[in-house]
Amino acid sequence: MMITKIGRFRQVVQQWKTRSLTIRSGSMAIYIGSERVRFVIPTRFLNYPVFAGLLEMAEEEYGFSTTGGLVLPCEVGVFEGIVRLLEIDEEKFGKLELDEIMKMMEDVLKLRKPDYLVCSECSYRGGFNLGLMQKLGF
């Protein structure tokens, strides 16, 4: 079942890649959340379990509609965190499932005081501080 989903996902990705003319080779544009915030990510990220989990969420939320680009139903800040983790250490974080990454982010948030959970000065809209995650070795 997962193999079928991954195969269908790759078809959608291939269709989308042929439509996006301004993206460099080896990358693709995706849209995140109800705001449809556009991200350009390396296509190799699509091989990781976390993206399989996001694809399942997209299938449940939107089906496999290909009009308007690939949309993942994820909070923008959470997606930024996922991408940042992969940029920090692809080998380490690329092996993790979506629920494992979410649990890790949740655990990091628990280490902070409650009044810091949502910080207006935080550079990530999700309210978590990736600098803290780096300091903790994530």
Tally of contiguous helical segments: 6
> How many strands?
3
Q: Describe the biggest sheet?
A: 3 strands, mixed
**Assembly level:** single chain
Q: Give the overall shape, derived from the CA principal axes.
A: globular
Radius of gyration: 15 Å
Span of the ends, CA to CA? 31 Å
Helix content: 40-55%
**Major sheet: arrangement of strands:** 2-1-3
- N to C succession of SSEs: HEEHEHHHH
Main structural class:
mainly alpha
Uncertain stretches: 115-128
Strand fraction: 5-15%
Average pLDDT: 76
Structure description:
There is one protein chain. Helix content is 49%, strand content 10%. It has a three-stranded mixed beta sheet with strand order 2-1-3. The protein has six helices and three strands, in the order αββαβαααα. By secondary structure, it is mainly alpha-helical. It has helices spanning 2-19, 49-62, 76-88, 90-93, 98-110, 130-135, and strands at 27-32, 37-42, 71-72.
Please specify the SSE layout and strand pairing.
Blueprint: H1 2-19, E1 27-32, E2 37-42, H2 49-62, E3 71-72, H3 76-88, H4 90-93, H5 98-110, H6 130-135
Parallel strand pairs: 1-3
Antiparallel strand pairs: 1-2
Relevant terms:
138 residues; 3-stranded mixed sheet; globular; 6 helices; mainly alpha
In short:
By secondary structure, this protein is mostly helical.
